[in-house]
Amino acid sequence: MDKNQVKTLLEQVAAGDTSVDDAVLKLRMEPFTDIDIANLDTHRALRQGVGEVIYGAGKTPEQIDRIAHTLWEGGQRAILITRMSEAAAEAFTKDVPFEYFPDGHSAVVGAQMEPDVRGNILIITAGTSDIPVAEEAAVTAETLGNNVERIYDVGVAGIHRLLSHTDSIMKARVIIAIAGMEGALASVVGGLAACPVIAVPTSIGYGTAFGGVTALLSMLNSCASGVSVVNIDNGFGAGYLASMINHMEESK
């Protein structure tokens, strides 16, 4: 049950359409649903404003299908699935609204929220190889009701490409900067932007990139103010955090 459902329930009580006892019974429903393979947090939207997200990696297509349908039957109408393989997407039982985003290996059951904030989230990648992580971030942010702008392949090896987008950088409310190799993009963007920058190191790079560790350490050591860092390849975490920041002004 999310905040809108609670509000509707209270309005029904106020109008006399639902008894107080029935309303209490609904509110006392278990805060999680045990389906043997998972314990689904059905009260997360009520606590945090966003329902449970399904992490698809490591789950079988059947497990993903069952979890998503259980959340749908419980009333969640925007269910994000991250790290979902094309095979799992093809096997999904499509008796509910379903859209798969292959570039970000993500899917949405139900529908992405319409943008409900004026602010803009800008996603910038150093290279084309970073796009899968960027698209995971983008789908996450769009599902949570944000306007998203994408600028891809503008890394420091040709910094003039990035500088041609200065207007977009200055207008953004939140920026997600995604890079592998040495991860220098985040510091450059942080030195230009007037808004929070969320840096995402990716596992792209040759031997001494160490699967993204070099970019991670570079971003953690950024001398630019206002740069925060999420884990390697964690596009979802960046998109979720960017959405929270973008909605803060609207919630005042």
TrEMBL record:
GO terms for biological process: 'de novo' IMP biosynthetic process. It holds the Pfam family AIRC. Residues 119-251 form the PurE domain. InterPro entries: P2CMN_synthase_LarB, PurE_dom. GO terms for molecular function: hydrolase activity. Signal peptide: none annotated. This is PurE domain-containing protein. It comes from Aminicella lysinilytica.
